[in-house]
């Protein structure tokens, strides 16, 4: 055929095309406020209008949305630098400051060609999704939350209706009517949204488009730039490509929010397209932790995996992909462990509570893949990287300690309020205000207990199955004593003298399964009990350890058929070894006599094994004590200045004197 001629910027065809593209860009510009938290609906387009325009753009994008992404190389990575049609200059970037972005825009692009039609439609469709459907998904999520809360308040008010008297009854009846009206109105809104937002055809069309966006982003970060024709290989280089860091963050966030939306409400839509791209995308960015600076964005990627592990293969689930895809088998386990550690500090004021929700999702994914041999092998390989795995194990243990302590404390408080309310005569004599306050406190405690218990159960379960495969990291000096103390303390809570305080009505409501929890704790003892480091750690726990508690636990587990005779015999053997070490320890302490203060660790008050000097405060402390401290807090405990373990200075002179003192005392007593 004849050679193609570059179209001139004139003629009816060009002007029509420019007019249409300009119209889409104007609509996007005029609807930027839709992305704000507070929006005046009279200042922006309607949801229906934006949804319809999104459909038009998707139709224009159809020719380059084929399964093989054959035109992916035509999408211009420099589009935002070349074209002013969509202004992203003030948008948050994936990993660049405003100054870095301004400098990037001032540099020359790879070529001076104007963006082609494919690039124009691609980026306009991304932006139209951002201000149209994605904004609607957010409104839909909020509407469902508000309706759920309104329904709870309405039902609570109705349940209290028999107690209304006098003027209060008139006021409450009016409030009840208003609640009913709001519920009816909200339900009507939800039905209207359902017909539009949950439409399978529309969602499948957007899914097809987002699979292209995913592949395009992976192609940018792929060092050889051939994805998807040649699949991306991990790990990626430490420094992400500049073209990736300069993209608006909302592109990644919209991918996450779109897949979260379909995974929550219409998971089967995922069956209309390949799900491999999504799995590769999520694992790539969890594995390459330096690529996306926003931890909450990565948390959304984890949440998508979590939602999709809940469904079977014919419901859109991705369980089979996680168990068979090479990228998953090689990188999912270490990536999840790395992110588990990373979310300890997110930088937000809510980070303490956020981390538990994120880790709950991680624990569910672990559970879904745990029985796979390849994933277990990766865990064992990761456990050989002692420093990073000990950090992970330490946080796992910290979470179990905190969550169980909080949930059992809340259950004890619920138990007390339930007893108070059961004494009807005394309860009815209380003022209405007092009763209201106690009922409000009970509801709050119930919410907290349920949440903490659900998270605590999963964390203990993770400790149980991980210690069945990997033992050494849990026996390190910085972990083993605290792990033993945590297990002993919770064993006392479940079988000790105060266990009756945990007797609450409808304990299943709070996800409290004391026998199951006891069985899991005992499994951890059995997993680690064959090792002398753990035996000695339990023996050193003077606060909670008691032989009687183990006897009681063994009786309960045998009677309920939760452990076999063999397991109970093993537990008995373990306890006997602990008792023997306690006797030996007592004799050893007697031998050492009155230990000089300078030989004692300043935090633990035990004789030091390997004394080291902290560089700033100049305090001498045992290496294992400061190592344990630094796992949770990277500062010197005596002056709060930053500290790493490689900065400590061995106190060899003091160590030699401690060894000499030990030898002298032992010789004198022998």
UniProtKB/TrEMBL annotation:
Annotated EC: 2.3.2.27
Domain of life: Eukaryota
Catalytic activity: S-ubiquitinyl-[E2 ubiquitin-conjugating enzyme]-L-cysteine + [acceptor protein]-L-lysine = [E2 ubiquitin-conjugating enzyme]-L-cysteine + N(6)-ubiquitinyl-[acceptor protein]-L-lysine
Domain U-box: 594-668
Stored InterPro entries: Ub_conjug_fac_E4_core (IPR019474), UBE4 (IPR045132), Ubox_domain (IPR003613), Znf_RING/FYVE/PHD (IPR013083)
This protein's UniProt keywords: Cytoplasm, Nucleus, Transferase, Ubl conjugation pathway
Family matches, as Pfam families: U-box, Ufd2P_core
Compartments where located: Cytoplasm; Nucleus
GO MF terms held by the record: ubiquitin-ubiquitin ligase activity
Biological processes annotated in GO: ERAD pathway; protein polyubiquitination; ubiquitin-dependent protein catabolic process
GO CC field: cytoplasm; nucleus; ubiquitin ligase complex
Family recorded in the similarity comment: Belongs to the ubiquitin conjugation factor E4 family.
Name of the protein in question: RING-type E3 ubiquitin transferase
Source species of the chain: Acaulospora morrowiae
């Amino acid at each position: 055929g004849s050679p193609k001629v570059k179209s001139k910027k004139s003629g009816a065809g060009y002007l029509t095309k420019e007019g249409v593209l300009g119209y889409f860009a104007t609509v996007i510009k005029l609807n930027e406020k839709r992305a704000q938290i507070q929006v005046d609906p009279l200042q922006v387009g309607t949801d229906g209008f934006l949804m319809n325009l999104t459909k038009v753009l998707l139709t224009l994008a159809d020719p380059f949305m084929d399964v093989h992404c054959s035109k992916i190389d035509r999408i211009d990575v420099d589009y935002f630098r070349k074209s002013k049609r969509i202004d992203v200059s003030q948008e948050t970037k994936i990993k660049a400051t405003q100054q870095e972005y301004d400098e990037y825009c001032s540099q020359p692009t790879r070529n001076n060609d104007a963006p082609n039609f494919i690039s124009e439609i691609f980026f306009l469709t991304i932006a139209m999704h951002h201000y149209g459907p994605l904004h609607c998904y957010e409104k839909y999520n909020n509407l469902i939350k508000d309706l759920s809360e309104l329904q709870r308040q309405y039902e609570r008010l109705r349940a209290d209706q028999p107690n209304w008297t006098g003027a209060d009854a008139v006021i409450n009846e009016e409030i009840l009517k208003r609640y009913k009206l709001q519920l009816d109105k909200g339900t009507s809104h939800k039905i209207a949204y359902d017909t539009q937002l949950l439409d399978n055809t529309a969602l499948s069309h957007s899914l097809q488009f987002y699979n292209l966006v995913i592949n395009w982003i992976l192609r940018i970060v792929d060092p050889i730039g051939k994805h998807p024709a040649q699949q991306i290989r991990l790990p990626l280089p430490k420094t992400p490509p500049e073209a990736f860091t300069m993209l608006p963050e909302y592109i990644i966030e919209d991918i996450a929010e779109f897949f979260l939306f379909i995974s929550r409400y219409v998971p089967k839509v995922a069956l209309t397209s390949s799900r491999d791209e999504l799995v590769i995308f999520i694992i790539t960015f969890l594995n390459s932790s330096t690529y996306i600076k926003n931890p909450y964005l990565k948390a959304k990627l984890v949440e998508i995996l979590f939602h999709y592990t809940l469904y079977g293969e014919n419901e859109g689930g991705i369980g089979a992909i996680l168990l068979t895809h090479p990228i998953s088998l090689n990188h999912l386990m270490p990536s999840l462990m790395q992110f588990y550690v990373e979310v300890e500090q997110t930088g937000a004021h809510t980070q303490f509570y956020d981390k538990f929700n994120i880790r709950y999702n991680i624990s569910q994914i672990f559970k879904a893949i745990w029985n796979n041999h390849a994933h277990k092998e990766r865990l064992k390989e990761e456990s050989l990287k002692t420093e990073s795995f000990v950090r992970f194990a330490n946080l796992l243990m910290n979470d179990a300690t905190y969550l169980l302590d909080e949930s059992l404390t809340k259950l004890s408080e619920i138990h007390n309020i339930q007893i108070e309310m059961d004494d009807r005569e005394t309860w009815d004599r209380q003022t209405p205000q007092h009763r209201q306050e106690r009922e409000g406190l009970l509801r709050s405690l119930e919410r907290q207990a349920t949440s903490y218990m659900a998270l605590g159960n999963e964390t203990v379960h993770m400790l149980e199955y991980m210690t069945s495969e990997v033992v050494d990291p849990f026996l390190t000096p910085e972990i083993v004593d605290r792990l033993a103390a945590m297990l002993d303390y919770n064993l006392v809570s479940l079988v000790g003298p105060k266990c009756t305080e945990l007797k609450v009505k409808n304990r299943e409501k709070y996800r409290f399964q004391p026998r199951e929890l006891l069985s899991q704790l005992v499994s951890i003892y059995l997993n680690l009990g064959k090792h002398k480091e753990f035996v000695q750690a339990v023996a050193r726990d003077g606060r909670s350890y008691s032989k009687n508690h183990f006897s009681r636990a063994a009786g309960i587990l045998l009677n309920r058929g939760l452990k076999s005779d063999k397991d109970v015999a093993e537990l008995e053997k373990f306890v006997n070894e602990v008792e023997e070490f306690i006797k030996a320890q007592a004799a050893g302490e007697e031998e050492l006599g009155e230990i000089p203060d300078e030989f004692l660790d300043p935090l633990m008050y035990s004789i030091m094994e390997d004394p080291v000097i902290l560089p700033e405060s100049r305090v001498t402390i045992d290496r294992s004590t400061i190592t344990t401290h630094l796992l949770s807090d990277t500062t010197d405990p005596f002056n709060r200045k930053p500290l790493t373990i490689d900065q400590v200075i061995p106190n060899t002179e003091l160590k030699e004197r401690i060894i000499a003192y030990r030898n002298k005392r032992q010789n004198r007593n022998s």
